[in-house]
Amino acid sequence: MDSRQLLVETMSELMWERGYADTSPRDVRERSGVGQGSMYHHFPTKRDLALAALERNVADLLPAASELDGPGSPMACIEAYLMRPRDALKGCKVGRMTQDPQVREDPVLLAPVARAFAQVHVSWVTVLREAVAAGELRADLDPERLAHTLMAVLQGGYVLAIAQQDPGPFDDARAGALDLLRAAAPPAPHRTNNRRNGKP
């Protein structure tokens, strides 16, 4: 790993742990072992480095969201995504940045965060529409609203877990969301056996 990559990775980790406001260039240099001259050669300002780190965090988030388009039925993909292992006490790498006032008030730093959530929202809407088309969810449900609800459940679950220093509330929130989705299934005789995209 070259010095630029090491700086970005280190800043990414520190921002996840402490936030942008509480991470200093010195913190990054000390943890990464990269010298001051090299750091400012690659990133003239802390903001430049933070932007690269945010882009990296977004790149980490989006492949996970692509699991919503994985093999199996739409509901199987939804369940796998909701219940996949996460470190609830560390929170979401991207969502955490919305709680940092310096990120929130800087349109340039906030842009990749907003873009990431917009892309995840599209993935959620797509899989929920497919679940409705396959008869796994009722046709009267609004995929757009439901996508926002499910994203809010995950982000809110992180907040509750961190506040209580206990992953239990996060696990309960996502299991509860899954319970509600199952309750929103139409009566069994109306379901179809449609598969999406020819996937088994």
Automatic annotation (TrEMBL):
Q: Which SUPFAM superfamilies match?
A: Homeodomain-like, Tetracyclin repressor-like, C-terminal domain
Q: Which key words are in the record?
A: DNA-binding, Transcription, Transcription regulation
* UniProt GO MF annotations: DNA binding
Query: InterPro entries given for it?
Result: Homeodomain-like_sf, HTH_TetR, Tet_transcr_reg_TetR-rel_C_sf, TetR_C
By its UniProt entry, which Pfam families does this protein fall under? TetR_C_13, TetR_N
Q: Does the keyword Transcription apply?
A: yes
* Domain of life of the native organism: Bacteria
Locate the HTH tetR-type domain: which residues? 1-61
* Start-end of DNA-binding region: 24-43
The family database entries (PANTHER family) matched by this protein are listed as: HTH-TYPE TRANSCRIPTIONAL REGULATOR LMRA, TRANSCRIPTIONAL REGULATORY PROTEIN
Q: What is this protein called?
A: TetR/AcrR family transcriptional regulator
Q: Which organism is it from?
A: Micromonospora costi
